[in-house]
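Structure first, sequence second, as always.
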């Protein structure tokens, strides 16, 4: 048993997890109420090791936002604009294909494409975009659209969600993105994203896609006005759907970015809160194979630390990210493959380049002791400060 856990009040939860038993919502709330980040991390790391051994993954991908014009006005969102706004934008299919062509030339394997609910683009724009990207390079995996975008496209097409997803799949769609989950509790959702799809609608879009044989990721936006109970309830609903469909490939907790929006939150989630939320997600979501530390929202250094708190993936190269940066994120716009491999090796993990479905493309050599020592020395102060916060 880990020494941090042996003397911890959380020892009984560790023993439950070590025995392969599922923790309850009450257990998850106990974890959130605890200040023992080291013990929480040790329990999460036990699950990570069981599921993914000593590997940690990344993906060579490129983000493309086709437009930020949106008919909704979610209070938390800094990305969406109206047609009258000077900083609104809309890409043509040709412009999207050109961005994809440039990215394909440097070896990306995935295009991650989302946008606002555009007030006037026809359904044919979206199918033409997918078909054109598929024609550009059939090897590219197209991970596109949030659940609310799918509902919007179904309304445009005047078809059911299932029929709409079928047409998009035929045009080239490989996977749905997990964005837009925010927090599921109705009162919180109404306060931060009035007019957006309900939790039931979000889950039903993903359920339908999974029943069609599709895979997707899912998310949780935390650190704004939600309670810890709301977080656990959100995780509960995701775990229940995963029990039913087994269609989620991974979970991505997203730290809230507080700038340029209407939610009165003065500071973003702390490093302590980010690590404990990620770790508790890893422990609770026992039917998920992968938990991603999203470096855009937490910074690459904290994402590296998160690899010791349950995360087994640090996302991708990205190249051009708008949504978090328009909300105040000060992380870089992109990372090189070399930088991602470096932080994984320094964390003592074997780097694995993955595809959209978290399947390995390339497995690197194990890290050397010098690399691990270098990473440990750089992160020790951060790690110690977080653990005693």
């Amino acid at each position: 048993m880990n020494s941090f856990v042996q003397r911890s009040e959380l020892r009984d939860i560790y023993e439950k997890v070590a025995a392969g038993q599922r923790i309850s919502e009450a257990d998850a709330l106990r974890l959130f109420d605890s200040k023992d980040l080291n013990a929480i991390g040790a329990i999460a790391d036990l699950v990570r090791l069981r599921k993914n051994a000593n590997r940690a993954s990344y993906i060579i991908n490129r983000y493309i936002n086709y437009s930020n014009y949106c008919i909704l006005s979610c209070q938390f969102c800094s990305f969406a604009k109206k047609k009258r706004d000077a900083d609104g934008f809309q890409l043509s299919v040709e412009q999207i294909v050109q961005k994809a062509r440039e990215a394909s030339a440097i070896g990306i394997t995935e295009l991650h494409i989302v946008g606002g609910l555009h007030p006037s683009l026809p359904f044919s724009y979206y199918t033409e975009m997918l078909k054109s990207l598929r024609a550009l390079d059939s090897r590219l995996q197209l991970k596109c659209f949030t659940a609310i975008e799918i509902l919007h496209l179904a309304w445009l097409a005047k078809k059911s969600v299932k029929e709409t997803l079928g047409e998009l799949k035929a045009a080239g769609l490989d996977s749905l993105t997990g964005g837009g989950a925010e927090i599921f509790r109705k009162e919180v959702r109404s306060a931060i994203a009035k007019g957006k799809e309900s939790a039931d609608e979000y889950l039903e879009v993903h359920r339908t896609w999974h029943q069609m044989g599709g895979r997707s990721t899912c998310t949780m936006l935390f650190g704004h006005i939600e309670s810890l109970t709301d977080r656990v309830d959100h995780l509960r609903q995701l775990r229940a759907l995963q029990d039913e469909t087994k269609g989620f490939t991974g979970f991505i907790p997203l730290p809230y970015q507080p700038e340029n929006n209407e939610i009165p939150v003065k500071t973003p989630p702390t490093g302590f809160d980010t690590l404990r939320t990620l770790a508790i997600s890893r422990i609770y979501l026992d039917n998920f194979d992968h938990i991603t530390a999203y470096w855009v929202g937490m910074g690459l250094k904290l994402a590296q630390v998160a690899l010791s708190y349950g995360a087994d993936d640090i996302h991708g190269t990205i190249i051009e990210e708008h949504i978090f940066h328009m909300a105040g994120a000060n992380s870089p716009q992109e990372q090189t493959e070399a930088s991602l491999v470096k932080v994984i090796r320094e964390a003592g993990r074997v780097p694995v380049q993955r595809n959209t479905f978290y399947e390995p493309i390339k497995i690197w050599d194990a890290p050397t002791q010098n690399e691990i020592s270098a990473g440990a020395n750089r992160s020790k102060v951060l790690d110690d400060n977080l653990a005693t916060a």
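Margin note: Confidence is low (pLDDT under 50) at residues 321-329.
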